[in-house]
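I am still getting used to backbone structure tokens and would like to learn alongside you. Would you supply a protein for us yourself, any chain you care to pick? Start from the sequence, derive the backbone structure tokens from it, and show both lines together. Go ahead whenever you are ready, and we will take it from there.
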Amino acid sequence: MRFFAALATFIDALATFIDALATFIDALATFIDALATFIDALATFIDALATFIDASSRLFHTKENAPA
């Protein structure tokens, strides 16, 4: 009878471990998704900054004050 009680305890512990592992994997997937969103936002910001710098450059380099 002790064997079956120990087996039941082991199976319960294994189920708890698998559940914790699934929770960890889900959290990791959420983190990776958030990181991808952050990288996408950063790329958008850099693109906007490049557009701003390009527009500023065009504004200050007209024909009158263009470098020789």
